[in-house]
Specification:
F1FO ATP Synthase, mainly alpha, transport, 91% helix, ATP_synth_csu_bac/chlpt, single chain, 0% strand, ATP synthesis
Length: 76
């Protein structure tokens, strides 16, 4: 195996790693939004406060995806 093949294999593994790292935040965002909708349905008067909390939860969850995106570039 020469160095070109190793570099190609390393790049492919990094892409698969990011794909796996994006699954968790995707599920997390779905859970955050679904629970917010459920809570707004129960108590509509808290909708504005719940939406702010939802956006914070989405931001923190998506930070995991960005870390997963940056990690292969850092260690490559």
């Amino acid at each position: 195996m020469d160095i070109t093949n190793i570099a190609e294999l390393s790049g492919n593994i990094a892409v698969v790693g990011y794909g796996l790292a994006a699954i968790g935040p995707g599920i997390g965002v779905g859970l955050v939004v679904s629970k917010t909708i459920e809570s707004i349905a129960r108590q509509p008067e808290l909708a504005s406060k719940l939406q702010v909390t939802m956006w914070l939860g989405i931001a923190f969850t998506e930070a995991l995806a960005l870390i997963g995106l940056a990690t292969p570039f850092i260690f490559a």
